[in-house]
Every structure is written in structure tokens, then in C-alpha cells.
Design brief:
It contains five helices and four strands; from the N terminus they run E-H-E-E-H-E-H-H-H. With 152 residues, it is of the alpha+beta class. It has a single domain, classed as Alpha-Beta Plaits, CATH 3.30.70. The mean pLDDT is 91.
Length: 152
């Protein structure tokens, strides 16, 4: 799109199905490299990635023609297939339905990058549910608590 100039940033969060602790430290760097490859092949920009055993945070810069739900669907489906093909877990690996996505301005990038980098430290004192509900409230997203990352 000639003469189209944008800065579109999304903080995306998605969770292992059943909130199982299946993302092991010994292969999570490979997982993140694989995610980087998917995002790059879709011509989008990865700014930060990290998580813990049961969920991942991604900070993306996207082009205006990017349909975020399609990008996240492709990331999650390709990752599930990749993890299962490499037998990284002793059970079937899958992601929870849905995801969270929050828009950011340029001035917020450093704060969110730092936040994503410190996930392990952050989750020593806060659960995924507490973290996620804080995001939803901060961004004034209406939600029903019974539908948040169920364990089934």
C-alpha cells in the first residue's frame, strides 16, 4: 500500500490448553525462534516474546493488512503441530481457544517490552488469572470471568 504509514502494535497473550505447565525451559527458546519465523514469514514484526510454562506474551508490530485473529490462529496451530511433531511433551500439546490482544502506542513499547522480558519474575507473585484480569480492566474490556482461560 503505497503512501500508507502506520504504527500498529499489539500485546498478545495466549495460554496452553487446560493451563497445563507444558512449555519446558529446555525447549522454549526453540519455540520462540519458531514463533519468530512464523511472524517474519507473515511479514509482521516481532518486538518481544516471553512467557512461562502455561502461557506466552508476544509484542507485535503489524501492517494494516494484517488480520490479527488470522495471524494468532496461524501461530497457535503451527506451534501445536511443531511441538507435537518434536515430542517435546509426553501428552498432546494444544493451545486454549481464544487469546487476548491489547493495542499500544509508541510511548508504551519500552514498558511492555520490559514487562514481557520479566515474566518469570512477575509470576512469582501473580497468577495468570490475576495478570489477565488486570489487563482486561486496564484496557476497559468487558468480560465474563467464567469464560477466562478455563482449565478444561
Amino acid at each position: 500500500m503505497a503512501n500508507t504509514y502506520t504504527q500498529l502494535y499489539f500485546h498478545v497473550v495466549f495460554v496452553v490448553k487446560g493451563r497445563q505447565n507444558l512449555i519446558a525451559k529446555k525447549w522454549k527458546d526453540e519455540l520462540y525462534k519458531y514463533i519468530t519465523g512464523i511472524i517474519t514469514k507473515k511479514h509482521q514484526k516481532l518486538l518481544a516474546i516471553n512467557g512461562i510454562e502455561d502461557h506466552i506474551h508476544i509484542l507485535l508490530g503489524t501492517k494494516p493488512n494484517c488480520k490479527l485473529s488470522d495471524l494468532v490462529r496461524d501461530i497457535k496451530s503451527n506451534l501445536s503441530k511443531w511441538v507435537n511433531e518434536h515430542n517435546f511433551t509426553n501428552r498432546k500439546f494444544a493451545w486454549q481457544l481464544g487469546f487476548g490482544a491489547f493495542t499500544l502506542g509508541q510511548s508504551q513499547l519500552g514498558i511492555i517490552i520490559n514487562y514481557i522480558k520479566k515474566q518469570e519474575e512477575h509470576h512469582r507473585s501473580k497468577t495468570l488469572n490475576e495478570e489477565y484480569i488486570e489487563f482486561l480492566k486496564a484496557y476497559e474490556v468487558e468480560f465474563k470471568e467464567e469464560y477466562l482461560f478455563s482449565v478444561t
